[in-house]
Specification:
Strand content: 15-25%
Largest sheet: 3 strands, mixed
Number of domains: 1
Number of strands: 3
Oligomer: single chain
Helix content: 40-55%
Order of helices and strands: HHEEHHEH
Structural class: alpha+beta
Mean pLDDT: 82
Low-confidence stretches: 4-17
CATH class: Alpha Beta
CATH topology: GMP Synthetase, Chain A, domain 3
Strand order of the largest sheet: 1-2-3
CATH superfamily: K homology (KH) domain
């Protein structure tokens, strides 16, 4: 019994399965752009004078849930700020839906998370010798 296993095909399938689809990428970019615009314009009262940057949006494969990572500057406690934003999720969703309703059958559930990648990079830079 001869069984041939093409390693390149097998590994290609594995990497493809872990990648986002084109649709997920488009939806992520759309949400990132529209939420950023909302924070600058109609939801500026939620920013409390802080600069909010939507760094990454991760969308589930069924497009039903979106994790939105933001960085907040110059907030002393960004985690509490993100929690406060999550308490206002209804207002944010109501402002966001009219802008993206033509792209979705159903509005994805959104949740904000603090993006600490800049803090992590700073820690690494302090640890590494110059």
């Amino acid at each position: 019994m001869n069984i041939k296993l093409n390693v390149s095909e097998h590994s290609a399938k594995r990497t493809f399965a872990s990648m986002e689809t084109v649709r997920q990428q488009k939806v992520s970019r759309l949400l990132q752009k529209e939420i950023g615009i909302l924070f600058q314009q109609s939801l500026s009262h939620l920013t409390s004078g802080n600069i909010i940057s939507v760094t990454v949006v991760r969308i589930a494969s069924d497009l039903g849930f979106a994790k939105i990572y933001i960085s907040v500057f110059p907030e002393k406690n960004p985690v509490q700020y993100v929690e406060a934003l999550n308490e206002q999720i209804g207002e944010i969703t109501r402002a966001l839906y009219p802008k993206i309703r033509n792209q979705f059958r159903k509005m994805p559930e959104i949740r904000f998370y603090h993006d600490d990648s800049l803090d992590y990079a700073d820690r690494i830079n302090k640890i590494l010798p110059d």
